[in-house]
Batch of 3 targets.
Target 1
Amino acid sequence: MPFPKPVFRAHGLGLNLIAAACALAGGASAQTVPAPPAAPVPAPDGAAPQRVEITGERSGGEMQERRQSTVAKTVVGREEIERFGDASLGEVLKRLPGVTLDGAPGRGGNPRLRGLGGGYTQILLDGERVPPGFEIDSIAPDQIERIEILRAPTAETGARAVAGTINIITRESFRKRLNDLRLSLGLEDGRWSPGLSWTRSGSDGALSYTFGANAVQTRFNTHSVSTLEQDVAGVPTLRRQETTDGATERRRLTLNGRLQWKLGEGEAVTLTPFAILSSTDSRRHSTLVQDPAATAPYTQLDGRGESDFNLLRLSAQRTQRLGDGTRLEWRAGAGRWRYEDEVQRVASDLQQDRADITDRSWNASVKASTLLADAHSGVAGLELEGARREEVRSYLTDGQPRFPGYGSALQARSQRVAVYAQDEWEINRHWAAHAGLRWESIETRGAGLDGGQRNRSAVWSPLLHAVWKPDPKQRDQLRMSLTRSYRAPALNSLVGRPLLSVNNSATSPDRTGNPALRPELATGLDLTFERYLPGGGLLSAGVFHRRISDLVRYETLPPAPGGRWVNRPYNVGDATVQGLELEAKVALREFMAQAQAPAVDLRASANFYRSRVESVPGPDNRVEQQPGMTANLGADWTLRALPLKVGGNLHWTPGYVTRLSATETAVQGRKPVFDAYALWTVSPTLGVRLSASNFTSPDYVRGSVYDNGTLYENSRTVSRSYVDWMLRVEMKL
């Protein structure tokens, strides 16, 4: 039965909805008796007065830090990170407001803010950009101290954050000696996955340290059905269905540490090593049914894949205080990761695809912080960064090159210099402002089969943030940001050699880079109203707008006679992105008598997005992979009669259609994901946690359509997902 051609529908975001939401948040009723003012927290020397330094237990401190920050920031602490006992960091992030993942349900994936991925979201690890190709799911949640999310860029954190910044901070050193040991056992579709996590903190004189290790063996099954239908001038020419069953086993060891030597008052040296050792084995069997059968590439296909990923990273930081009170922070780091992969497919012949990719990166920076005048805090800095990627691929059939010339080594490299300055000013009790200016120069060099290319660009990024508190004694405030940001091409998008598809077609093309890519520039406006409730809750409503120039988009062009279909990135012009963001965190005790109210905490968020790419005809000419909306609804209940805490969370992303070009369309199915957990606290040092991730286990649907008026091709893949059960024993020794 042929697939129907997609029907394009426009999805609007009415101004009346935005106004109503802001009015709703602004008019939400608060308690008439104000809470006593929080005791002032001393700001670190050289830092802006609004910043808060919190040590020890962070319970409740995350909300206070968010409230005190001049820049819109969400802080997620240990309690929320470990609430569901997740095996991957991506599963933690997907429950946060405005965060979506690009992977299948229950499989983690790369995080994106406001539905914008692919480099629009800046990912930092301990304040430094993660190396290209780094997967955050390789970090165990047990090794994370907290997560900071900034909705708008700042001069200090960097302007490569069109959608925002996610800063992942690893476990910190504590003076108190502590051992955390966690043993876990997962079950998915009848396959067991054991895991172990250990963290040790302590001190010895001037030295404080934290070491962490996480070892996990993950086993899971896959099942998918892919269909392809092709018409030429309205006449059916090809019908294909491929069923694939597979099994994957992944072994991963993650090591991290933080060592800090105190050299004196306000001076210290900190080393932060980080390492990942990972290997994956996979097996799959495919059955293909095709009409006409005479042209089928195979009927049975057996595949085997082996891959290894190794990453080493070391960062060093030196802080010192000058005589005038200026605080200097010197940082340097270097890292290297290598990915080796071999895939074998056996049908009528033996095909071997091999890849060997090495990425080296380094960075160095210096930052000075000082008090400029009364209520002024200034920061200025210099950053240097370099990265180099080397890639070797080969494609063999029965030991002979399938595509001669594709096995040669290709390279891409980038260098960046940045200078910035910012001033944080507490104007009065009602107003606080944050102004910054950042200049970055980027040089990229990419190589392709048709030669290499060198690009240089420079970006000025003025950044303005402000907070207005109508009544400082109350808990309402309005945040405003006017910023300029950019997205530089990733190194893999500059390497101009195709990654070959097995069954090449218009909807399954080879993918290649483009050494001529230019950076994308974005001008942004953010407005957010926040109301902080006396019991620690929050109501928030915000709108944002981004105007992007030189947008990068992948397009598939018709091949030359006898050639292959190839998908390649291009700078295609301008785009606009805008949205409405709603968030609520409340406890039932906010609305009921505290003695009668059950200890239930509620959280909810809803985000509505609209985008338009001007060079692509509408409707549905949205920015790629951005849904029309996302929503989260969750609750946690601490029982009074038992040492038991239970909770659940529903994350909802509806299906959507994206028009990529005049001839291409992408289809993404809905992703409802429900998670639940129960924590039994046996004693202050022993707890048992049972969790179920992806409890709804929906099918994961993806599709694409190519239609140039003569050739119509429609492909669709439906993948099964599974419930992932996890039993974990948590001990403090």
Target 2
Amino acid sequence: MTVELLPAPDRPGLTVVDRIEGRRFPLTTRRPVDPEPGDDGRFRDPVDAAVRCRVGELELPYVVAAYVRDADGEMIAECHEFADRELPDGEYEVELAAPVKVYLRVAGPLAVDSTSDEMRIAFGERRRVDVGARSFHEHPAATVTTTAAPEDLMAAVSTFGSALKTTSPERSFPSLRGHPPTVELGDALSVPDGVAPPATDLCIEVPRERSAVYAVATLAHYLGARVRPGPEPRLLADGDVLGVLDGPEGLEGAVTETLRHLFLLDCVVRTEGRYRLDLYERRRLEERVDLPLGELYRAPIAERTRRYLDVATETVDDLVPRWTLATHLSPAPEAAELLPYAANALSLIAVQRSRSGGDRSAPPPGYDAFVEADDAGAAGDAADGDRYVHVSGPDAIERAWVGDGRAVNANDLHPAGVRHRLAGESSEGPVEIALVCNDERMLAEIGDGDLYGDREELPFEVAVHREVSCDRLRSLLAEDLDFLHYVGHVERSGLICPDGALDAADLDAVGVDTFFLNGCRSYDQGRLLVEKGGVGGIVTHGAVDDANATAVGRLVAGLLNAGYSLRSALAVAGRGYAVEGRYDVVGDGAVQVAQSESGTPNLISVSETADGYEVAITTYPALGTAMGACYTPHTPSVDRHFLVGGELPPFELSLPEVLNLLSLERVPAMIDGELRWSTDVSPADLP
């Protein structure tokens, strides 16, 4: 079972455990509980597990968004920090936006109160409470086999909409989109029963070209649209042309603009539905245009899409959050297998174009040359015979690359890493981490293991290993570990140990899920670890000096411990150190070693103003908080919701408010241009 609700071993209460994603959420009670099997049909939303127990109140380890609905499913209360709500006798369902989605169903009075870092839900007296939980883990429901022929690929991409859990505007929430079927290349097209797109009456026509099919994959998934050949790329509803997908930046640019436009309007219109949140983007949009939001919410998707496209793009363009991911694909047939991954992440898609000529750019440290992805015809050969690529294209927080050569500024999205993550098995117990130091000069990077495991609500087992032999390192890499952090020398012959070099090519299998190989030129070894069974890891392209490597290593370790993905950890590290071209991610860069406490990894920037301080918060993606998720800063003077993605509008805060915000959670903070940890900042450190 993916999710379990278990009696807590060290305190009265329950612990919600997601074994696939390695996530936990404790619910503390005053007395020990004896949970009985529950009825998952008691909940309005699907749950993976349910129990029933008698409790008087529940204490949460930190504040999460709590949505209270009545017996009819209407949301009657929304609680965050500094909540103080008391509701009379009634039947209630409470949805907790925790690292694992939790639902409570109870009859009787209900009270929710919280401070900046604690939340309590009370039921008046000991009552029967149904508790349900659902994982954010999404697994494809089927596999579609296709040839490389464009029309077969169109049929495969047409199945992506089958994963949508709704065609209402709520599908803009990441948990309601679902993972499209996996795609495998074969000798003939084979589409399993039950993976047809929903009846949206939407269709996308594109030329019979693989690159065109790839470019529209995410849009087809989000709209639940069929893809078919046509004389020019265009979007249709009920046979009527809604728009031609072309413009100054071609098909890809038009698809990006259309997806951004439709998505933003869905996020605004969904506030008329089950989640009537005070959304910042809605306030701003209503200042500019008068839209019948309730009417649009109730309209069929084809009609709603038609009316969205009547709204001028420039009206909403600056309200769209910075996109989470841009995936750069080769037009080769093999890239088709990564389309479901990209669509599931709601990624913008750019397809590599071969051109003659092309400019060489400054090389990554230790190598000779790399080229622009959009000018890939002049592939420069590096000193080791590989081609290095610098990708450009759609703006996004994270980038991924699928194609020939090594991208020096994007996640090398190896298909094996994605397959290994999707095939991940349940793991028992805490997050298991191994720290290996085979270079005495870099012992400062791992210290005594205090880089990981300082999370009260999330158990860790951290083991430190020094001067590890080849056989011992081989054994560690074969273990079922969540993460391995290696510090030491790496050469072409392998990871350097006191008794020689361990070449990952010689390993039978890798049990470690994620890794950080902090040594010179570790890319080859990291890629082999992914091929042998790993999910993803951070590696280096060239030489890294010990001092910089130690600083980057400690920062990245802290970020991974705080719940940042591999890709986002490097993005944040780049704020303070020279990372681009030196460090990169191989495999699935979206994977997290640990869960984020607040649910949304973020970075806080503080600058002084005449009346106080201006605070800017940059949000980063994580499991369950991808495109479409909402975030509310933990400060009483800000009571609005914002769409996750990049930097939020700045806030004016007082000194006490800034200090309280910085103390709530250990996150990176830019203070007077210096990258710090928020909980280490004192009043004297502020500008």
Target 3
Amino acid sequence: MEDRPLADLFEPATRERWLGLVEGVLKGADFEKRLVSKTADGIRIEPLYDAAEAPAQPMRAPGPWRVAQRVDHPDAAAAGAQALADLEGGSDALTLVFAGAPAARGYGLTATSVEDLDTALKGVMLPLIGLRLDAGARGQEAATLVKALAEHRGDALADLDLDLGIDPIGTLAAAGTLGAVWDEVAPTLAATLTDFDAAGFRGRALLADGRPYHEAGASEAAELAAILATAVAYLRALEAGGHDLGRARDAIAVLLVADADEFLTVAKFRAMRRLWARVEAACGLDPKPLRLHAETAWRNMTRRDPFVNILRATMASFSAGIGGADSVTALPYTQALGLPDGFARRVARNSQIVLIEESSLAKVSDPAAGAGGFEALTAELTDAAWDAFQTIEREGGIVASLSLGKLQGRIDEMRQTRARNVATRREALTGATEFPFLAEKPVAVLDVAPVAAPGGAGFGAGEAVACEALPSSRLAEPYEALRDASDAYLLKTGRRPTVFLANLGPLAAFNTRATFAANAFAAGGIEAVGDGGFADAPSLAEAFASSGAPLACICSSDKIYEEQALAAAEALAATRGATIYLAGKPADLVEPLKAAGVHAFFHAGCDLQALLTEALTRATRT
């Protein structure tokens, strides 16, 4: 008997053989349309990649990323309790989110004195943790408070792993104003670093933050380009203020948004390090690992079925971690509903602890290296982001581009495309646009009222730079507004808006489209009633009349539509002047069905958001 390795008994696996098998499965369908997708930047995502060469690139220092938790309770004592619970529960970094910062979402630390901050960090040993400040326009004020706290406690700044998070350009993008012209702001950044360095500071003073761009709908390349342009502007400001480029480089950190798209998030984090290495090389510096923070995506969070946010944040944390993030802040799953309670915070940190301690994901410095898909996406995203960065530079830099509205215009186009994709469910949001659950129960958040942003802060007192502020929104908001209207109707009348499923024929004929229709209507807060099938139009119309529903949706197979849909539509339309929909879009019958009384067609790729908006209006008319 021949003794050969099992693999030798089979033909070598080649792309040509694979393509031959694919052709057999596609049966003449278009390969490009079925198996090739594109990112928001137009980058192709192939269904299969060969192994790739892994180019050397700077990565995170060996070891796990830091698990960072937000400290954002307005009350200093309560914030301190949060911080200690998180650190005792396994976190090793804190993000101090101050009231008024965009990331505070209406809450945040209201600390305005060293005593307040000392209370908020009572029992926290600063030299043992990572600390990042998130204060928006109050960035320099917050940095001064932390410096004073370290002096008060006798902690040497040189011993702290500290990111001051000062980001005037991010503030300009998010708020539309700086408080002074850039030529006045830039010297204050250099002066702040000089002051802190004189006190022994060796951390990162400035932050190039991608959140304003991501929350406005930017693509991956656009977010990277804006961050890179911001970091370069800070390099120039620090060098002009007397700092050598080596120290200026080390004084800048980056924050990237991580979302639930694993491949693109990993590629984006890896691309950021390559892009920064290009800038370092252009400055004559030997590349060093960039301090790269991650925060899970606000724009992908949902208020409906918020438990799905746990999955989104976990996938985002996973992707950021293996993509090389130095620290990851996972937004608690109830963040969009209010101030998260202890359980939501525990889930946020534990999801990362499991990834690090149980899944051992941090034991390989760059696990995506050499994987064809990741390497191709990283390389193409790097090139696309560099081109977008050069566009910003040609416009005079990031401040000029924002002031002229150039960058906002490009991001607005992306936002509109993304909004259309959500409206048509091309970009699905589980629990909001897909598989909504109308009977979901409320989840707990802390009973804490939002706080007003402190006034009087900014980056200067001269003539202000002003621009169109980038909007911050979540993708699910239009559908959540429909659900809110449904809830209000339920509270007022004791019942939800309803649609009658006018199912024709046996279960096998209508089940697929009836399920599709029920889920589609539920995304707008409209409850489907009726689950049986009907053999003829008269019995269908009688059941519809008995249901009391103001809407009806015909559901069945194309074959039965050919035979019975017209009669069913006429019978339903004659009943109480109802609004009739049909699941699917039988091409040859569209016009005759409209003439018979069908108002609109629910089908894959339709503008579901617009259809539901009108349907809800019709269903709630009194």
